[in-house]
Amino acid sequence: AQSVTQLGSHVSVSEGALVLLRCNYSSSVPPYLFWYVQYPNQGLQLLLKYTSAATLVKGINGFEAEFKKSETSFHLTKPSAHMSDAAEYFCAVSGGSQGNLIFGKGTKLSVKP
Amino acid sequence: NAGVTQTPKFQVLKTGQSMTLQCAQDMNHEYMSWYRQDPGMGLRLIHYSVGAGITDQGEVPNGYNVSRSTTEDFPLRLLSAAPSQTSVYFCASTTQRGFGNTIYFGEGSWLTVV
After folding, report:
1. pLDDT tens, per residue, chain B with 114 residues
2. Residues of chain B with C-beta less than 8 angstroms from the C-beta of A9
3. Among residues A53, A59, A90, B71, which is most buried (max CB within 10 A)?
């Protein structure tokens, strides 16, 4: 069975600092991995996804993630945080017999001026 | 350019009442699903459908009912609302069940059961 663990329910960074949100997965088959962002009182928006092509995946808003099979990780990074990046971020893996998304518990990112 | 549309956006129910959350998509997607989001729990799958007339249970199906009579619509029914069903509900869809396909989400429905 597939699962996802997001390390840190809350991350706080200063504006301009590196953003690093951690995600580790468990999967018995090659995984498909996703990062979604949720702004307050809104739905989920896809940031990026890994589907076994390039291991370094670039997404929207300057975010990227690197798939590391040896570490079973798919961490999300952004070189320089902006105030508008404050949101909740969810890592997810496609699993189950129907390819349903299995989500981590989320990491809330705060950006300090 | 509607995508996935959910109604209502906000609803307050009394314990024991029933209601239906509506979900419609205009992308001709075969696969549709319902999730609930609770603080610290992420999103958990309630029910899903891989096509008209076909539904199945997800991780937390108890207290909810679904049907899929058309490709476009996938309503979620709460049969007898309980305070434990206070949550944010998201409908989602994708082209067909597939492990790498992007899943598109609606804007969410905030439900409070008192």
Report:
1. 569 999 999 999 999 999 999 999 999 999 999 999 998 889 999 999 999 999 999 999 999 999 999 999 999 999 999 999 999 999 999 986 666 788 899 999 999 999
2. 40
3. A90
